[in-house]
Amino acid sequence: MGFIWNFPLFTIVCSLFSGALCSILSPRAAKRYTILFEGVLILLAACVLGYTLGSGASFTYVMGEFPAPWGNEIRAGVLEALFALVFLVIMLCSVFAGERFLQKDLDESKINLYYSLVNLMTAALMALVWTNDIFTGYVFLEILTLSSCGVLIVREIGRTTLAAMRYMILNLLGSGLYLLGVVLLYDTTGHLLMVPMRTAIADIAADPANLPVLSISVGILTIGLAIKSGLFPFHFWMPDTYGKASPISAALLSSLVSKAYIFLLLKIYYRVIGPEVLEKLPIGNILLVLGMLGIIFGSVSAMLSDDINRMVAFSSAAQIGYIYMGIGIGGLAGYTAALFHMLAHAVTKSQLFLSTPRLAEVSGGNLGFRYLQGSGLRNRDAGKAFSVAALSMIGIPIFAGFASKVLFGISAVMADNTMETVCVLLVLAVSSLLNVLYFIRTMVRIYIAPTKEQVKEGKYDYRVKEGHSPSFFIPMLVLSSINVFMGLFSWIIVDLIRTGLGMFA
Hints:
Layout: H1 7-22, H2 27-55, E1 59-63, E2 72-76, H3 78-97, H4 99-105, H5 111-130, H6 134-153, H7 158-189, H8 194-205, H9 211-229, H10 238-243, H11 247-273, H12 275-278, H13 283-304, H14 308-329, H15 331-361, H16 375-378, H17 380-394, H18 400-413, H19 418-446, H20 452-457, H21 470-488, H22 490-504
Antiparallel strand pairs: 1-2
Helix pairs in contact: 1-2, 1-5, 2-3, 2-5, 3-5, 3-11, 3-15, 3-21, 3-22, 5-6, 5-11, 6-7, 6-11, 7-8, 7-9, 8-11, 9-11, 11-14, 11-15, 13-14, 13-19, 14-15, 14-19, 15-17, 15-18, 15-21, 15-22, 17-19, 17-21, 18-19, 18-21, 21-22
């Protein structure tokens, strides 16, 4: 066994250790350690991606060399390595770019504890990406839920406390349903590891009389993860959760945490249930309908928002709908579109949530649209970062969002059902129009100087400007570069996703 086979395990175990270590470090040391540590993890994930691409095969690491059911397994392929790498890059950029707001939102004595939670979140994210055991997935779902609530509640204002309580209650409900689904599948198959479970499910599904039992088990598990990731109609927690959190927390929760839940669900669909068996169940059609409804309702709610953070939060609900719509379409094209959009949205959403507070800083601390007039001129770095992300969300060519919508359109055209094709294409057109309305409206406002009447109101000084900040500019440049790369060279990412899906079997 090559030494590189240990790297996925290192990303999990070392992150858990780092969480404990940061709790005893000084705030400054914890920040520096976390940034350095995330950089090391990026190198490990890049090595795994290069190794799996070079070897053309995935590998399974059996911890302690104990076979099932006593042992546990970690599995690494191209798809897992790609998502681990992108997740870690976004984590590092978010921590680096939003660090200055921790000084404002947190008491100095708690900053090191915040970095402890960030490291625990990293461990949970990596475990959900690498795990080959659905019960281990549940264990780290809980760790991710608790660390997510921790980074949310640290701001210690009334709205964040309420949002954290609501978030925890709904996430615990989702975790409970996921666990119930795991128990039912274990009772049916006698396995928890993904490959043996898939073999058993294929034998069970050969008898049509067993399909209702599978539908119930998989359906309960799906509802649990849908609640946790914010699929319509379970998206109502997003505005307060994302809108009132500290910028780093909002970026991490919206861009990474929700995607990790969906990635686990996709692994279960593809590696446990199997695409052939899943097509026999009604779950795909339900996800397709809920995904399309989420796109429309999320976009309409974003358009009606009068607060930029709430607008971006409702936009997240719409983008989650896109991902579930791709899963509902199914097939290689549908799964590829969903996975590509997960990456595109993760990169873009972190830019949005990290740039909006800087626009508010030069607008008297206000997030309302009427106060943001000309904020892109007063903080040019934040204005540029927001604009790149907004154009990607709209679907302008050269950006990742455009490639995502093309992939969804292709998957819809390839569907066998004409009505499904028409509905998906119509939803894509309507949602793109709505995206144009609320994102272009925002971009116009932040780049038009305030009127004389607004200046005369004297609520704050419109002349306040923010200088060039390397700690913000460099992470935004990295994320913008990834965004443009995914737009211009989308076929490279698509090939990696399809190669990874081929290794899933």
